[in-house]
Amino acid sequence: MLYNLLYPLFHEHQVLLFNLFRYLTFRTGGAILTSMIISFAVGPRFIRWLRKKKVGQQIRSDGPETHFKKAGTPTMGGLMILFSVTISTILWVDVSNPYMWTVLFVFLGYGAIGFCDDYAKLTRSSTKGVPGRVRLLLECAIALVAVLVFMLLTGGTLGSSLAFPFFKNLLIDLSWFFVPFGLFVIVGAANAVNLTDGLDGLAIGPIMICSACFGIISYLVGNAHFANYLQLHFVKDSGELAVFCGALVGAGLGFLWFNAPPAQVFMGDTGSLSMGGALGAIAVVTKHEIVLGIIGGLFVLETLSVIIQVVSFKTRGKRVFKMAPVHHHFEKMGWAETQVVVRFWIIAIIFALIGLSTLKLR
C-alpha cells in the first residue's frame, strides 16, 4: 500500500525518499521489521487474553512424559502470526499484484481451517478437532482455487509446467494434471508443517528458514535480469511475494520470542497450517515445487516418519520409531527437548543451503 501511495509522489514532487519504495529489497526489509514489531507489541496482551479465556493446549496421553506439564499453555498463537503478517504485507506490498492476494487467500483460508480445528479441540477438551476428511476437503478446495488462479495468471505452458532443479531447460507440461499436483504441494506443505509443530520452537525456526529462502527465490524469479542470468523460469510479478516472505520471517521472529522454551504460547494448527500452505502456494507460483521439498526437507522427514510408522504398524504390527513424528522418537531416546529443537534447526539449515544451491548448479 505504501508503494502505491508514496512511490507516485516521487515522480510528481521529486522527493528522493519516496523512491526507496520502488525497491523490493527495501519493502521486504520494511515488512520484516513491521511484522516483528507488531508481534512484539500484541504478544503479551494476546497471551494474557488467552490465559484469561483459558485457551489451553490439550496434551496427548501417549506422548512424552515431559509434555504433561505443558497442559494448559495458551494455544492458537497463530492468530498473532496471521495478524502481523497480513498487516505488514498489505502495508509494504504492491496491492495491485494478484499473486500476493491469492497467496494471502491461501494463508488466511488455511489459518481459518486451523482456527476451527484448534477451537474444536478446546471446546471438546480433546486432542481431536475437526474430522480429518472435512479438514482435508476444505484444504483441497482452497488450494484448488489458488492453483487455478496461478495457472491463469502465469499463462502459457509455464503455468501448467513442472520445472526441475539442477537442469537448465527441463520443463514438463503437465497440462491439467498440474491441478492435482499443485493441490498436493500446497496441502502437503501445510500438513507437513503441522506435523512438525510438536516442540517449543521446533516448527517456527525451519519456517523462517524456508520463508527466507523463498523470499530470495521469489525475488530472483520475478526479476527478468536475474532469472535470465541464473537460467530460471521468469514469472512476471512474482517478485512481490518476497515481501510476504519477509513478513513471515518477521512474524516468526516475534512469535519465537514467546515460543522459545519454555513456551508461553503455542501456534496451534492456526499457525502451522497457514504458514505451510502459504509456502506451498509460493512454491507453485515460482515453479520451485521440487525445491520446496529440498529446502523443507525437515518437514518431509517428519511426514515420512509418520507414514512409515503407520504403514509398518498396520502391515507388520510393529513400530519403526518409538513414537512418531520423529522428533518424539528422539525425545523417547533421552534427548532433551532443546537438543532436539536446535539439532533439527541445524538440519533445516543444511537442507536450505542444498536447496539454494539449485539456483546456481545447473
Structure description:
There is one protein chain. With 362 residues, the chain is mainly α. It has one domain (2-357). The protein has helices at residues 2-13, 24-52, 78-92, 98-124, 132-154, 178-196, 204-221, 224-230, 241-259, 268-285, 289-295, 297-316, 326-332, 337-357; strands at residues 161-163, 171-173. A hairpin with a 7-residue loop joins strand 1 and strand 2 (171-173). Helix 3 (78-92) runs antiparallel to helix 9 (241-259), helix 10 (268-285) packs across helix 11 (289-295) and helix 11 crosses helix 12 (297-316).
List keywords for this structure.
362 residues, mainly alpha, two-stranded antiparallel sheet, 14 helices, 67% helix, 2% strand, globular
Protein structure class: mainly alpha
Helix content estimate: 55-70%
- What proportion strand? under 5%
The H/E string reads HHHHHEEHHHHHHHHH
The residue-averaged pLDDT reads: 91
Count every beta strand, where a strand is a DSSP E run of 2 or more residues: 2
Rg computed from alpha carbons, rounded to a whole number of angstroms: 20 Å
Number of domains: 1
Main sheet: strands, sense, barrel? 2 strands, antiparallel
Arrangement of strands in the largest sheet: 1-2
Span of the ends, CA to CA: 37 Å
Overall 3D geometry? globular
Number of separate helices: 14
Task: List unreliable stretches of 5+ residues.
Answer: none
